[in-house]
Amino acid sequence: MTTEMGSQEPVQPVVGLALGSGSARGWAHIGVIQALDEIGVHPQVVAGTSIGALVGGAYVTGSLNAFADWVESLTVKDVFGLLDISFSGGMVKGEKLFSFFQNNHDNPEIETLDKKLVTVATDMASGREVWITKGRMLDAARASCALPGLFSPVKMQGRWMLDGGLVNPVPVSAARAMGADVVIAVNLNAQLVGAHLSRDTRSQAEGEESTAEERSIWQKMMDYFASGDGQDPGFFDVVASSINIMQDRITRSRMAGDPPEVTLVPMLEDFALMDFHRAKEAIAEGRALVKRYEADILAWVGSPIADRV
């Protein structure tokens, strides 16, 4: 649009979200997106890795609020009930969790969406970074969530896929490649967590009323996630801690080379790997982050006054 002086009004930039990996801390992504919406910032491009791919998928399909209601209702028992135990390629197949999502939320083809979505996975054979921009949303998210030692790898496009956090934990580069002018990144890797089930989580699981079969399953899971024998680290301690350290270093390197315009770091240092039942806390922190950085965000994207009145 041209004014009387002949100048043009500034064009609003394409806003992209880079939603990082971080297991249960990833519920903070929900609060970030909800709070952005409240200040009139509506990202048109979403790049997600691991849990960021799942939350990003819920957002671009218009299911985010319903998804938020569901995750906020989860108890420790619910979380364990959604995990299908398997010691082939990973402790959890992930079929129960993603089947539940598919039965309760939309799962369209990515190409049909109004917003752009790209999920990041890792080719197990070559170690290459794979950007998924086609096919069913849940398939793309599931391929990005195959955390070694926890979720089994997924075969997609004739290749076995591992968690995208192994190569690109906070996918700023993917968001830019999809057309984002301004990237808001959510980095969950700044605070490494030694425990994988917090003490409160273990206590809640042990105190839940359950059948003998359920108690047996829970005990197997708690043993797997336990922090060794008090002196020597357990198997999963070694695997998960190594992945956390690697992802933190990769995140620092990649974000230094291609920094986002805005970086949001949720303060969830007491969140353990499997604390998925603590969604309310994580979502609240995500919302609070946007409020704290609202001025910076609007300075980059331009104040969308029309959307806020």
From TrEMBL:
PANTHER family: NEUROPATHY TARGET ESTERASE/SWISS CHEESE D.MELANOGASTER, NTE FAMILY PROTEIN RSSA. The active site is at S50, D163. A motif (GXSXG) lies at residues 48-52. Residues 17-176 form the PNPLA domain. The lineage of its organism: Bacteria, Pseudomonadati, Pseudomonadota, Gammaproteobacteria, Oceanospirillales. Pfam families: Patatin. Keywords: Hydrolase, Lipid degradation, Lipid metabolism. InterPro entries: Acyl_Trfase/lysoPLipase, NTE, PNPLA_dom. A motif (DGA/G) lies at residues 163-165. It comes from Alcanivorax borkumensis (strain ATCC 700651 / DSM 11573 / NCIMB 13689 / SK2). GO terms for molecular function: hydrolase activity. It comes from the Bacteria. This is PNPLA domain-containing protein. One of its GO terms (biological process) is lipid catabolic process.
